[in-house]
């Protein structure tokens, strides 16, 4: 429609009629004279509205889904946090059980050897105080720890205390190249000196070059004067190799330590030495040898061939 004077007049007239119909409809209420027209319009335009609503509803549903997915995401995140916390708790329980097991072994060792010990936990490992193979424990002078005390765990000799602070102490491990301890062979009482070799087995020099030693023999600490730095009877390790003597005055052994130095956690510092040498009583029981099955082959004589039987006949 062109914008003319007549079109503008027609538009104003239509607007006036629309306002008049709205006024009549409002005043008429349920008896409105345009009610029939409204119903007819509803009949005509209802399906169209439903179609439009159906087209718009997926968008509304999508918005709702996004909102609900946000709620679900929050719940999922909460469940994931709960799951992580539960795993951490279970891990903590496993670690606690492991520590209790280590502590139980430590108490058994101290009981057998009659060592008065102060329990401690390893809180650091690595180079400290200029040493290469050391650990730091959470016990120090305030706990009665002093320099040159023996440190052990439920498996055997760990090392000796070298530096003491108020609440911590540094322990030189038996694997350190600067570490040396006097040893005594189980049963034979052969004496020697064990030295650390880092991640390799301990090196033991026996004073008797003709000593009869075999693989599997075990060693304990010989002990030091006034029990410092080493108390006697602490398990050291098992002979893994015996070098030929070659006429030397000493005999060299390779000894695998009882202690796993890469898994140190709970240790004990011997603050009171035993009244008497426990000798071999602290060593664990030797495992029983597994019997080797013996296979017996019985040869059964075979029956003579038919041809030979016929010739004999």
From TrEMBL:
Ranges of residues in domain Rod shape-determining protein MreC beta-barrel core: 130-270
Annotated Basic and acidic residues bias: 274-283
Residue ranges of the region described as Disordered: 274-313
Matches recorded under InterPro entries: Cell/Rod_1, Cell/Rod_MreC_2, MreC, MreC_beta-barrel_core
Pfam families: MreC
Keywords, sorted A to Z: Cell shape
The protein's role, per its UniProt record: Involved in formation and maintenance of cell shape.
Family recorded in the similarity comment: Belongs to the MreC family.
Record-linked PANTHER family: CELL SHAPE-DETERMINING PROTEIN MREC
Name by which UniProt lists this protein: Cell shape-determining protein MreC
Organism: Streptomyces atrovirens
Record lineage: Bacteria, Bacillati, Actinomycetota, Actinomycetes, Kitasatosporales
């Amino acid at each position: 429609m062109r914008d003319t004077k007549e079109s503008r007049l027609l538009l104003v007239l239509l607007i006036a009629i629309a306002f008049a119909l709205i006024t009549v409809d409002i005043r008429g209420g349920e008896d409105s004279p345009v009610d029939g027209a409204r119903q007819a319009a509803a009949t005509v335009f209802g399906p169209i509205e439903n179609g439009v609503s159906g087209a718009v509803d997926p968008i509304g549903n999508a918005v709702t889904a996004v909102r609900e997915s946000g709620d679900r995401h929050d719940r999922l995140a909460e469940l994931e946090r709960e799951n992580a916390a539960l795993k951490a708790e279970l891990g903590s329980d496993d670690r606690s059980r492991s520590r209790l097991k280590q502590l139980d072994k430590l108490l058994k060792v101290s009981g057998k050897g009659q060592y008065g010990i102060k329990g401690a936990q390893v809180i650091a490992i690595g180079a400290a105080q200029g040493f290469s193979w050391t650990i730091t424990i959470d016990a120090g002078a305030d706990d009665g720890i002093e320099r040159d005390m023996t440190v052990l765990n439920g498996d055997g000799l760990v090392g000796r205390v070298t530096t003491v602070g108020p609440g911590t102490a540094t322990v030189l491990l038996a694997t350190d190249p600067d570490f040396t301890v006097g040893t005594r062979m189980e049963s034979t009482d052969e004496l020697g000196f064990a030295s650390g070799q880092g991640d390799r087995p301990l090196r033991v020099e026996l004073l008797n070059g003709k000593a009869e030693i075999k693989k599997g023999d075990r060693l304990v600490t010989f002990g030091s004067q006034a029990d410092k730095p080493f108390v006697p009877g602490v398990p050291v390790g098992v002979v893994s190799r015996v070098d030929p003597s070659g006429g030397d005055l000493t005999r060299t052994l390779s000894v695998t330590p009882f202690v796993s130095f890469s898994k140190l956690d709970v240790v004990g510092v011997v603050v009171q030495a035993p009244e008497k040498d426990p000798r071999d009583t602290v060593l664990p029981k030797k495992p029983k040898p597994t019997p080797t099955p013996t296979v017996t082959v019985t040869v059964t004589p075979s029956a003579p061939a038919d041809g030979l039987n016929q010739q004999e006949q």
